[in-house]
Write the structure tokens for this entry.
Amino acid sequence: MERQEDQALLRRELASLCEGSRYPRCAGLIQHGTTSVYQHCAGVAWISLRLARRLGWKVNTRALVRAALLHDYFLYDWHLRGQRPRWHGFTHPRRALCNALEEFDLGAQEQDAILRHMFPLTLLPPRSRIGWLICLADKWCGLCETLRVPYSWAPVEKFDIPFLTKLQKSR
Ligand SMILES: [Fe+2]
Ligand SMILES: [Fe+2]
């Protein structure tokens, strides 16, 4: 039941972010391996939710999902030298946050979670539970994508998200 509610929440927030924004562009940008930024962010949102449930943490799940979906909203192909800023690993959280704030309203926790998701590479740790969940889920998803294995207990193919299943099938 919880799982279905989480899937519905994720679908709803994805659809809302895609409306009249640059968000769909993330589907055309590669993050790791053959995984797009769109798939990566959906994966991080899903794993963050699962992790929160497993740990029994009471968090604002909508804020968690929105911050996870926007944590890599930097909107360039970081594999292309001409597009990638010199210190992409360090600078992209701020770029993602600035892009997100141009189009969406975000609370303090969501903003902090986006800004600090690269901890410990960037030195300041997340200040909230949602920040920690995203930080951990991001590492896990990045590792699985680089190794080209599913996100273990929560393969993204299992849920119907606009663009996502189609893209997965075309891999
Ligand atoms: Fe990132
Ligand atoms: Fe990420």
Q: What stands out?
A: The longest strand covers residues 30-32. The pocket of fe (ii) ion (ligand 1) is lined by residues 71-72, 92, 117-118 (CB under 6 Å).
